[in-house]
Amino acid sequence: MSSNLLEVKDLVIKVHDNNDIIVKDINFEVEKSKVLGIIGESGSGKTMICKSIMGLLDTKKFNIEGDIRYKHNNIIDLNERNMEKIRGQDISLIMQNPMTAFDPMTKIGTQIIESLRAHYSISRKEAYQKGISVLKKMNLGREEKIMNSYSNTLSGGMLQRIMIAIAIMLKSKIIIADEITTALDASNKYMIIEELKKLRNSGITIVIITHDFGVLSSIADNIIVLNKGEIVESGSAKDIFYNPKEKYTQELLYASKLNGEYNGQSQKYFQTV
Ligand SMILES: Nc1ncnc2c1ncn2[C@@H]1O[C@H](COP(=O)(O)OP(=O)(O)OP(=O)(O)O)[C@@H](O)[C@H]1O
Ligand SMILES: [Mg+2]
């Protein structure tokens, strides 16, 4: 049996109005308990691919073709009701713009309690306690205060960590992290990557979306390189880092080294893990 949890086959996303192609011929697999990195420059279609996997693209605006296979279903064919069952409990998206993921009028604690109770039959009190204990794991500090806050009083990085906490609480099988380290400073970036490693070690499958090879160098098992809506190269992280075949990948690696994101020392990772 295949160990793939999610398979994307011949995915094409077009804009309805003008038939503009946003991504095309996208093929990849997400293996259970592995980390897949999707890397590409701004505008290459990374977020659109994430949203199509979550069933979050407006089908009036976008035409989506192909197969996004999860548990014998093609996600593209699922109605909103069935998709809601998959979101959170099976696949969670940690969004690039976390503000939009929270209701600004409802306290964070209430949103955590409600999302837990939507999937599990537990009391509000139990859900609150669970929320506190998982927030503790995210090293945010002052968990009670966070539960009592509104999203507009917290930073993007904090909201992303709260989204990861919710994904852990809901026991998501796959966590898709869309550029979650982009706005962070070096030490917070390191902390969140360590957190993702712990999740991977606990059996959760992770997809990391980034434009930063440094983020992938210590954690990715496989990497897909995206350019202008198409995959230019894909393979094991080892191959992409040490034997990139395509000029575009080589240039992207070089650029990551130049701007200090990737120090070219991922050998260490491959020798020790
Ligand atoms: N609502 C929309 N209507 C039409 N085109 C869109 C829409 N949203 C995004 N696009 C186009 O889709 C392409 C891919 O966008 P996407 O947001 O997936 O890029 P990205 O790789 O996530 O970039 P970034 O690194 O900046 O987040 C872009 O060229 C963008 O112009
Ligand atoms: Mg994006």
Structure summary:
This protein is an alpha/beta fold and about 270 residues long. The chain has 11 helices and 10 strands. Strands 6-7-8-3-9-10 form a 6-stranded mixed sheet, sandwiched between helices.
Keywords:
273 residues; alpha/beta; six-stranded mixed β-sheet; 10 strands; 38% helix; 25% strand; disordered C terminus; binds adenosine-5'-triphosphate; binds magnesium ion
Please write the string of helix (H) and strand (E) elements.
EEEHEEHEHHHHEHEHEEHHH
Detail the poorly predicted runs. Answer: 267-273
Bound molecules: adenosine-5'-triphosphate, magnesium ion
Give the radius of gyration: 19 Å
Strand content: 15-25%
Q: What is the strand arrangement across the widest sheet? A: 6-7-8-3-9-10
Q: Number of DSSP helices?
A: 11
Give the integer mean of the pLDDT values. Answer: 90
Range of helix content = 25-40%
Q: Helix/strand/pairing class, anyone? A: alpha/beta
| Shape, per Cα inertia axes | globular
Q: How many distinct beta strands?
A: 10
Q: Major sheet, described briefly?
A: 6 strands, mixed
Amino- and carboxy-terminal Cα gap: 26 Å
